[in-house]
Write a structure and sequence with these properties.
- There is one protein chain.
- By secondary structure, this protein is of the alpha+beta class.
- 52% of the residues lie in helices and 14% in strands.
- Strands 1-2-3-5-4 form a five-stranded antiparallel β-sheet.
Length: 290
């Protein structure tokens, strides 16, 4: 089954796709945690028990609309979890006795209509697209195909190598004049070992070939190389956002931190849909501004 993790104020909102009814079901406890700004699982569970009893009298239809599906918890195991569909979550949020619901509802109802949201929907489908041919894995051509797939129709430069010099956080990426030569060099870098693959990934990040969407595209590109060469991929949900961003900033001078993070998150579950879906969610989460 398709699973998804959305992030609101650095808190997870887990969801699972219902193919038969063509809709997402969202974890009630995750929404309770968000709206109460509470990380204690027991307190959130107890609050939901209290709220459910209250709603049985005030809004019995909402309680009867609650379903139970298995979602993966922090310990990696699956547990039956109370879930509601989009309409149910909207009603649940409006029943909260605080003013946090309005900003949450703005995010919940509109987040998927942003460029990131629309691009992420495409990314979910990438696993089944078989877009990049085996011979193009690890090449700039393969990366351009990924970028064009994720951002086609959203950016007019989707899949196109930039012709302008760009910078971020005071760091200037490869000067546009020298970018084609740099990409040729990266194309020919070896990728037979884990260390060689990480080196290639780091160099591609320094090159930053697109005007926007580099990180999201390049993380998929990295996973394709790891799958092809080592029969492994990265479980991105095991890599903390701030640790990842810090390690990538340092990688231009010292790649040991990002190498260590990636090595600790490798998995041989290369065909596991949930690993892939969570990977997309975390990849897009890394790009969210705090």
């Amino acid at each position: 089954m398709k699973t998804s993790i959305r992030f609101y104020n650095d808190r997870e909102v887990r969801a699972i796709w219902d193919e038969e009814n063509a809709k997402w079901w969202f974890s009630v406890l995750d929404v309770v945690a968000v709206l109460n700004e509470q990380d204690d699982y027991a307190k959130n569970r107890n609050y939901w028990k209290y709220l459910k009893a209250k709603l049985r009298k005030e809004n019995p239809q909402l309680v009867s609309a609650t379903n139970q599906l298995k979602l993966t918890a922090a310990d990696g195991k699956k547990y039956n979890t109370d879930v509601l569909d989009l309409e149910g979550i909207l009603e649940l949020a409006m029943s909260f006795p605080n003013n946090k619901a309005s900003t949450f509802l703005d995010w919940f109802t509109y987040s998927d209509n942003t460029i990131d949201g629309r691009s992420r929907k495409k990314a979910y489908e990438f696993l089944d697209s078989h877009l990049v041919e085996d011979k193009d894995v690890g090449t700039i051509k393969g990366l351009q195909q990924i970028h064009a797939y994720l951002f086609g129709g959203l950016y007019d430069f989707a899949g196109k190598i930039r012709t302008k010099t760009i910078s971020k956080g005071g760091f200037t990426f490869c000067v546009a004049q020298y970018l084609p030569q740099a990409l040729q060099t990266i194309d020919h870098m070896p990728e037979s070992t884990f260390d060689e693959i990480v080196d290639k990934y780091v160099e591609m990040n320094i090159a930053h070939p697109f005007m926007e969407g580099n990180g999201r595209s390049t993380r998929i590109w990295l996973d394709l190389i790891l799958k092809k060469r080592l029969r492994h991929c990265v479980d991105w949900s095991k890599i903390n956002k701030n640790d990842y961003l810090r390690a990538m900033e340092q990688s231009e001078a010292d790649s040991s931190s990002i190498r260590q993070l990636l090595a600790g998150a490798l998995t041989d579950k290369i065909d596991d849909r949930e690993i892939f879906m969570k990977g997309i969610d975390y990849s897009y989460y890394y790009e969210q501004e705090d």
